[in-house]
Write a structure and sequence with these properties.
This protein is α/β, with parallel strands linked by helices. It has 22 helices and seven strands. Helix 1 runs parallel beside helix 5, helix 2 packs across helix 3 and helix 7 packs antiparallel against helix 8. 44% of the residues are buried.
């Protein structure tokens, strides 16, 4: 890394920030708002009730998100360790001039900048190609799919950042000569960040392949006889196993996850997609080719994959990404945000493809046309991707207004029911706790403490009016609020 590299990287990071500030202040109702709302609700409850990281709570008190089908009156949210949530909750508590949602997005943006910087570093170190490093980091910095999922209120980007920092520290142990104390420091920080990364989001564990590759590069096959290798992973995984043991005490707060491997939820119920043609079409054509790469960028990615590298470490990033894809096939097809985990390797190998083209430009086409054509392909790919991704920012404009009505007509401690088929977005926007669906008869829900039923379904409104004698607190052409 020379002075020129730091200047280039600064400009790339500045560009990345500018792109990620697009619509940063919109209500939390954009794509995958239900998942973002659950994450933000944990942070909001930290602000309200104190930072109890061992007992994170969100707004859904129903059994909708409980694998055991249990009522969840305390609203426990026992999934990933809530470090990401705590970070932006703490920022909001101390600097409340910005909203909690903006702080959540800014936190994701900050950690995405670390990923961009480390992509640049690894590509430069492994290939000695500034063109490859610039392209790889620039793809992650500006391409629409990368941008959107680097500023959502989800823990994936933070976890990715931590695992990349872990890889960075372990990578430093390859430098020679290195004294024992310095090596210990590098090991220590690598362990800490890898441990935190899998606590924040366990799916980043597939990047263990990169860590194993570094051990192999350092010790060759003798790493299996090295005690430091076993201690490294023992201390890395111990906090994760302790956390998983802890959350088993709260089954009502653990959502179902077995479907993530094999199935997708359709209007006909769960359908098995494991290694079915539909999986390959959705992931490799619809998502990676169209959404992420905008079509034409796939050429550079494939060129990077099949191009010859003198150093092989970067391939371990790609293998880790594909192992993740083929393991969680259901989750990756069901939700776009699951592809966040594979974005860094995709960007890296696009950069390697451009580097390969630059090295052999005389083989492909006239040298004078190579770079202009490559630039033209990038521009086309960017706009084709943006054409699809721009809809991710859209949200129903009436939803925040409905939330304000609910907030003004109910008390903060009132438990409410929203007829949203399990979507917790309205609960979050209204700043109320309760159930995101009418999962049992309203009379039974009344007995367990629910006070208001909110429905946006005209048929449901007619049904309740005909069958129940509830007071109508508010009604217009969009919703009705019934007092139970």
């Amino acid at each position: 890394m020379k002075k020129k590299d730091f200047l280039i990287l600064f400009l790339i990071l500045l560009t990345a920030v500018i792109f990620r500030l697009y619509k940063i202040n919109i209500p939390l109702a954009d794509l995958h708002s239900w998942r973002q709302a659950d994450t933000a609700a944990v942070a909001r409850n930290f602000v309200k009730n104190g930072f109890d990281l061992l007992h994170p709570r969100f707004d859904d008190l129903s059994p909708n998100q409980s694998a055991a089908g249990l009522e969840n009156p305390e609203g426990y949210r026992m999934v990933e360790f809530p470090l990401y949530n705590a970070i932006f909750a703490l920022l909001y508590k101390n600097f409340s001039q910005l909203s909690l949602e903006i702080w959540g997005r800014l936190t994701s943006i900050f950690f995405s900048l670390i990923i961009i910087a480390l992509i640049y570093y690894f590509v430069l170190k492994e290939t000695n190609s500034r063109i490859g490093a610039i392209t790889s980091s620039l793809v992650y910095a500006i391409f629409p799919f990368f941008v959107f999922f680097s500023r959502v209120i989800l823990p994936e980007t933070t976890a990715l950042s931590f695992v990349f920092i872990s890889i960075f520290f372990l990578y430093q142990t390859l430098d020679k000569p290195i004294n024992r104390f310095t090596e210990f420091i590098f090991y220590f920080f690598s362990i800490v960040f890898f441990s935190l990364s899998i606590l924040i989001k366990p799916t980043v564990i597939f990047y263990i392949l990169v860590l194993l590759s570094i051990f192999y590069l350092k010790y060759k096959i003798k790493f299996l006889k090295n005690i430091s290798f076993y201690l490294y992973f023992l201390f890395s995984f111990l906090p994760f196993f302790l956390w998983r043991w802890h959350i088993t005490k709260f089954p009502q707060g653990i959502p179902p996850s077995d479907w993530l491997i094999t199935s997708v939820n359709t209007y006909q119920g769960l359908k098995n997609i494991f290694f079915k043609p539909a999986f390959f079409r959705w992931i490799f054509f619809e998502r990676i080719n169209n959404l992420i790469f905008g079509g034409y960028l796939t050429f550079f990615f494939l060129l990077g994959v099949f191009g010859k590298l003198k150093k092989k470490l970067l391939y371990s990033f790609l293998v880790a990404a594909f192992l993740y894809l083929f393991t969680f096939q259901g989750g990756n097809v069901q939700h776009e945000y699951y592809q966040t985990v594979i974005l860094p390797p995709l960007a890296i190998f696009v950069g390697l493809g451009v580097n390969c083209l630059s090295n052999y430009k005389k083989t492909f086409i006239s040298p004078f046309l190579t770079y202009p054509l490559a630039f033209f392909v990038f521009i086309l790919s960017f706009f084709f991707s943006f054409y699809k991704v721009k809809d991710f920012y859209h949200y129903p404009p009436e939803l925040p207004q409905i939330a304000k009505i609910i907030n003004s007509l109910t008390l903060p401690d009132d438990k409410i029911i929203t007829d949203r088929m399990g979507d917790t977005t309205l609960l979050y926007l209204a700043e109320r706790r309760g159930a995101p669906s009418i999962y049992k008869d309203p009379d039974e829900l009344k007995k367990i403490g629910y006070k208001y039923l909110i429905t946006l379904n005209p048929e449901e409104i007619k049904k309740i009016k005909a069958e129940k004698n509830y007071q109508i607190v508010f009604e217009n052409n969009q919703l009705a609020i019934f007092k139970l």
